[in-house]
């Protein structure tokens, strides 16, 4: 039988974990895991998909609203099950171990490790701006090559993993420092953009085309066609554009994975979810307003200057760097590279620290390598951390992490929908269970979240099948793996 949410041992510490994460630490894990490099890049693709400045901001606002409502909903589940594992546990307790395993399989195979790899490579990519020697290949075998940047990315993963194996205290200090630093830096960029960088020409152009809806399709970096959107076409474009904004706002649920190490988790986690996601979403919207004050949305890939390329065709989609270049000139590249290095390094610290707790919970259920379900002398799942680091490093070398992340967008939305639906399932199955926090606006808000997420998932299924169908395949591959684990894996019952 699934474990009771009250089954805490060792003075309130489940399974030997040390409760050292307070509200600030928990909030910084939420903030730090959310803010990576996305806010400085994905607005270019969104702008190409929706056209006008109004729709660009609308995409970020809708994604923000969905994220905050999701965080509010997870708060109730976090209060019910204050143990390591987070979303994996919620799915197991709401449904069954099979559904939970499919999530854990996808989480380990692609979602968390793919994100760690992508963030590490982004860290290395922007580090190469300051260290050009990282870019050239250091090993070439036929068409396969390994660059210094890839090795640098793997080195950052191994370093942060080592720090996490030394205990939760070191990981939380690193997270607090880097999260606060990136918050202040992002806020500084926003203030400079609003106060100093405002460009009357960009503002007038953006206001004139504020609600112009167009979808610019590219082929090999060139404009293939531009569709003028009306009616359902606008809705379809908004749904397709939501992918970048949602993934830039994702990973907020990582704090739930570390519930076994949070002080007063039934109160702290729900509050950190709401405060953390709220802070990030406000900053994201403000950052895009700053971009719009500095750069025109619409541009041309053939333009010779930054303003002419606009947000849509910022060089390599680096919107943040493009905006900064109009304010700081040639030094902008160095400034933004430093900012994104801090942002991505801190982001990966939170992802690495939190993700291993899911594999720990799976191993305790006999659905992952048995050794991953143990803690080292520092009271952290070291084996789970190193297994995660190993697979993320393989993905760094393979170069497939970007495609894999695109493929699982649809699957991630489905698991979010199932988890939020789990609130209703558990209200029926366990009406008398302790709920220190009950989701505000129940059942309206959870239902709205599920409807919005389902609409985006369907939109992606229709308009981006090349991404969504392989993602479904990745999840379905978990079925035979589950059967193998059931037959040859540990015989421990879920929650034991």
**Which band does the percent of strand residues land in?**
under 5%
Say how many strands there are: 4
Q: How many H/I helices? A: 20
Average of per-residue pLDDT values: 86
Number of domains: 1
Strand order of the largest sheet: 1-2
Rounded to an integer in angstroms, the radius of gyration calculated over CA atoms is 22 Å
Please outline the major beta sheet.
Answer: 2 strands, antiparallel
Shape: globular
Alpha-carbon distance between the termini?
A: 8 Å
The secondary-structure element order is HHHHHEEHHHEEHHHHHHHHHHHH
Query: At the first level of CATH, what is the class?
Result: Mainly Alpha
Q: Determine the fraction of residues in helical runs and give it as a percent range.
A: 55-70%
Briefly note the structural class of the backbone.
mainly alpha
Poorly predicted tracts of residues: 1-14
> Which CATH architecture is right?
Up-down Bundle
The CATH topology label is: Amino acid/polyamine transporter I
CATH superfamily caption:
Amino acid/polyamine transporter I
């Amino acid at each position: 039988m699934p474990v009771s949410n009250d089954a805490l041992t060792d003075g309130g510490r489940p399974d030997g974990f040390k409760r050292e994460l307070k509200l600030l630490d928990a909030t910084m894990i939420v903030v730090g895991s959310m803010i990576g490099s996305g806010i400085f890049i994905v607005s270019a693709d969104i702008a190409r998909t929706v056209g006008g400045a109004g729709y660009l901001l609308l995409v970020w606002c809708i994604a923000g609203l969905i994220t905050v409502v999701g965080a509010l909903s997870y708060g109730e589940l976090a209060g019910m099950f204050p143990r390591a594992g987070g979303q994996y546990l919620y799915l197991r307790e709401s449904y069954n171990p099979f559904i939970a395993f499919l999530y854990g399989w996808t989480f380990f195979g692609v979602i968390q490790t793919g994100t760690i790899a992508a963030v590490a490579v982004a860290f290395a990519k922007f580090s190469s701006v300051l260290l050009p020697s990282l870019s050239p290949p250091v090993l070439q075998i036929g068409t396969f090559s390994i660059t210094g940047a890839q090795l640098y990315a793997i080195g950052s993963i191994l370093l942060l993993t080592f720090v996490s194996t030394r205990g939760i205290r070191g990981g939380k200090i690193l997270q607090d420092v880097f999260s606060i630093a990136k918050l202040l830096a992002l806020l500084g960029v926003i203030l400079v953009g609003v106060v100093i960088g405002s460009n009357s020409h960009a503002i007038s152009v953006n206001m004139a085309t504020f609600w112009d809806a167009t979808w610019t399709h590219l082929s090999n970096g060139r404009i293939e066609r531009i569709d003028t959107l009306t009616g359902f076409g606008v809705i379809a474009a908004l749904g397709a554009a939501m992918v970048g904004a949602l993934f830039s706002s994702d990973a907020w649920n990582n704090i739930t994975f570390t519930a076994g190490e949070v002080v007063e988790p039934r109160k702290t986690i729900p509050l950190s979810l709401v405060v953390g996601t709220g802070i990030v979403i406000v900053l994201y919207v403000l950052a895009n307003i700053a971009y719009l004050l500095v750069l025109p949305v619409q541009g041309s890939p053939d333009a010779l200057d930054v303003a002419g390329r606009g947000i849509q065709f910022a060089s390599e989609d680096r919107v943040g760097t493009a905006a900064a270049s109009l304010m700081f000139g040639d030094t902008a590249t160095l400034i933004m590279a430093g900012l994104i290095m801090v942002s991505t390094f801190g982001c990966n610290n939170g992802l690495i620290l939190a993700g291993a707790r899911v594999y720990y919970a799976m191993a305790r259920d006999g659905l992952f390598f048995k050794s991953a379900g143990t803690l080292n002398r520092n009271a952290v799942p070291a084996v789970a951390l190193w297994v995660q680091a190993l697979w993320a490093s393989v993905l760094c070398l393979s170069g497939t992490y970007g495609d894999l992340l695109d493929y699982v967008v649809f699957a991630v939305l489905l698991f979010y929908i199932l988890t939020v639906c789990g609130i209703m399932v558990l209200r029926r199955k366990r009406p008398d269970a302790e709920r220190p926090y009950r989701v505000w606006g129940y059942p309206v808000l959870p239902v709205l979240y599920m409807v919005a997420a389902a609409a985006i998932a369907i939109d992606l299924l229709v308009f981006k099948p090349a991404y969504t169908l392989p993602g479904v395949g990745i999840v379905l591959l978990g079925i035979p793996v589950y059967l193998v684990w059931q037959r040859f894996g540990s015989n421990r019952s879920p929650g034991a």
